[in-house]
Structure formats: C-alpha cells, structure tokens
C-alpha cells in the first residue's frame, strides 16, 4: 500500500508540476541571487522571465527576455523563442519559490537539447527584496 501511495504522488508531481519535481530532485540546478548576479556579467547567459507580460513590464531582472507559457503552448515549443546555440547558459525565473513556470520552462529547454539550463527559484520578488538592479521599460 505504501508503494502505491508513492507511485500516485510521483504521478501527480509529474502531471501537475514536472518542472518543480525535477528541479527539486536535482535535475535542474538552482542559482542564488548572488550567483545569478555574477552570471549576468558573462556574455553567453540569457535570463528568461516566465511571468506574464504585464508583470515583466512592471519590472524585471536587467537583460531578461519575456517568454510566457501561453506563447509557447505550455513551453512545448520553447526552442522557437530561444537562441539556436544549445550550449548557451539559460536562467529561468518567475514569481518565487512556489511558482512552477520557471522550472517547467527549464525542463522544456533541457528536453529541447539545451545543455545549461538553470532556475532562480527566488524569482523576481527575491531579486527586488535584495535591492538588486531592476529594469523597467
């Protein structure tokens, strides 16, 4: 009975939050705010804000592009919106620890052949709370 419960929990995680489950199991590395800030200095890093366009335009991490789950059909065709260089470092973020958009997008990128996908699980709320630079169009 215990193993049946474990299987049901695993299936639920896979269906409703595959990105979060994989991210928490170590499939997608997570960066801290400090690590992300250091990576922003590197030329081959692309930061992807997975929040809504309205949230993005209210403020985002400098240099981030906005790719939403709606425009990519739940990230299934995310590669169309990313650089062709599959070795480029991609860092995905959204609304914080409980938001599944960034992990889902990172998993989709990995499944599309991108080798260096990361999440910043603190997301924009953590970035802003730490007083780090914010870009507003």
UniProtKB/TrEMBL annotation:
InterPro entries per record: GlpE_sulfurtransferase (IPR050229), Rhodanese-like_dom (IPR001763), Rhodanese-like_dom_sf (IPR036873), Thiosulphate_STrfase_CS (IPR001307)
Designated name of the protein: Rhodanese-related sulfurtransferase
Domain Rhodanese: 41-136
GO molecular function, one term: thiosulfate-cyanide sulfurtransferase activity
Biological classification of the source: Bacteria, Pseudomonadati, Chrysiogenota, Chrysiogenia, Chrysiogenales
Organism superkingdom: Bacteria
Stored PROSITE patterns: RHODANESE_1, RHODANESE_3
Organism: Desulfurispira natronophila
Entry keyword set: Transferase
């Amino acid at each position: 009975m215990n193993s049946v419960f474990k299987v049901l929990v695993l299936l639920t995680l896979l269906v409703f939050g595959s990105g979060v489950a994989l991210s928490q199991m170590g499939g997608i590395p997570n960066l801290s705010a400090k690590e992300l800030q250091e990576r922003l200095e590197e030329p081959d890093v692309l930061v992807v804000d997975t929040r809504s366009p309205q949230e993005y335009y209210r403020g985002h991490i400098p240099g981030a592009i906005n790719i939403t789950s709606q425009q990519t059909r739940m990230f299934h065709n995310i590669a169309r919106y990313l650089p062709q260089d599959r070795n480029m470092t991609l860092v995905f973020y959204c609304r914080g620890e409980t938001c599944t958009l960034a992990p889902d997008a990172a998993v989709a990128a990995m499944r599309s052949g991108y080798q260096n996908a990361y999440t910043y699980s603190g997301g924009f709320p953590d970035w802003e709370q730490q007083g780090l630079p914010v870009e507003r169009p």
